[in-house]
Amino acid sequence: MVSTVPFDDFHIEDGSPVYLQIMLFVKRGIVAGSIQNGDELPSRRVLSSLLGVNPNTVQKAYRMLEEEGLIQSHTGAKSYVVLDQAKKYRIRAELMEAHAKATIRAMRQMGISKEEALSVIDRLWES
Amino acid sequence: MVSTVPFDDFHIEDGSPVYLQIMLFVKRGIVAGSIQNGDELPSRRVLSSLLGVNPNTVQKAYRMLEEEGLIQSHTGAKSYVVLDQAKKYRIRAELMEAHAKATIRAMRQMGISKEEALSVIDRLWES
DNA sequence: GAAACTGTATTAGTCATATAATACAGTTGT
DNA sequence: ACAACTGTATTATATGACTAATACAGTTTC
Predict the structure, then answer these.
(1) pLDDT tens over chain B, length 127 residues
(2) Which of A68, B46, B112, B125 is the most buried (most CB within 10 A)?
(3) B20 closest-nt by C1' vs CA
(4) Cα–Cα distance between A22 and A94 in angstroms, integer?
C-alpha cells in the first residue's frame, strides 16, 4: 500500500542542522516501518512550507537521502522511497548502535555504572 | 587536594561546536569526580595549543562555564573550579536526564521496545 | 622592577547553515 | 496543448563557529 510520507509528528529542534534532522526523521520512520518502499515524499516546496523552512534546506536533505540510495528523484516528477530488506537492516543497525554508543560514552565519562544508566533509562522510558 | 584539570583524554569530535565539547568534558569530569573544587584550569593559551584550536574557542567555553558559576577567572591570574555539593548534584541530574531522554526519544521513534533498547546498551557497554 | 606568564578585547577573514528570490526544465492531469 | 504541479540551479545575504593576529591589563615569580 503506497502512501505519502507523513511529516505530521516532525518538529524542528535546535542544536543540529535542519537538513540532518529531516534525514534522521526519514531514517527512523524507515526503521519503524511507518515509511515503506514506494512511498511518495512531499514535494520540496510543500514540505518546506509545512515546516517553515527554506526549500533549499529540504532539497539538501532529499539530495543526501538520494545519495544514500534511500529515495529517488526525477525532474518534473514526485520523489519516492526506494527500500529493500538489506537497506532497512543496515539503517536499523547503524542508528541503534550510534545512539547506544553515544549514550554509553557519555555515561562512562561521568563515571556512571551500567546498572544505574540502565535503570535511569528504564525509569524515564514512559514520558 | 588541588590539581590541574587534566585534558589528556579529551579528543575533539566533529558534529557539535568545540566550545560545547569542552564545556561537556568539564561537566562530565565534575560528575565523575576527576575535577574537584579548587582545581586549577589550564590557561586559555596552553589548552588551545594542546587541543589545536584557537584561544578564542577555549575562551568562549571558559566564559560560559563561568556564567554557569562552575569556574572563576580574574585578569592576570589562573582560573579555578568552584564547586559545592548542590552544583554537582544539579549537573549530574541534568546531564543524565538529557542523555537518557535523547536516547529514549530516538529509540521510540524507531519503534524499538524498551527491552531491546536496554539490551543493546547492555551488550555494547563493554567496548 | 622586569620577565613571563595570566585574562580580556578587537578586528578581519573563512566556512557551513539557512534564507530569499528567481529562473528553467520536465511531469502529470485535464 | 495547457495549467499546475514537479525537480533543479543560481545568486545574494545573514548568522554562528572558528581561525588569525594583535593589543592591553593584571598576576606571579625571580
Answers:
(1) 679 999 999 999 988 999 999 999 999 999 999 999 999 999 999 999 999 999 999 999 999 999 999 999 999 999 999 999 999 999 999 999 999 999 999 999 999 999 999 999 999 998 8
(2) B112
(3) D17
(4) 17
Give one word for A59, left, alpha or beta, with left for phi > 0 and alpha for psi -120 to 50: alpha
CA distance A1 to B121: 34
A87, A70 Cβ separation under 8 angstroms: yes
Out of B32, B34, B104, name the one closest to residue A124 (CB). Answer: B104
- Determine contact: A77 vs chain B, CB below 8 A: no
The candidate with the shortest Cα–Cα distance to A62, out of A95, A37, A27, A97, is A27
Q: Of all nucleotides in the shown strands, which has a C1' nearest the CA of B41?
A: C6
Q: 3-state DSSP call for residue A52?
A: coil
B:31-70 residues touching chain A, CB 8 A cutoff: 31-34
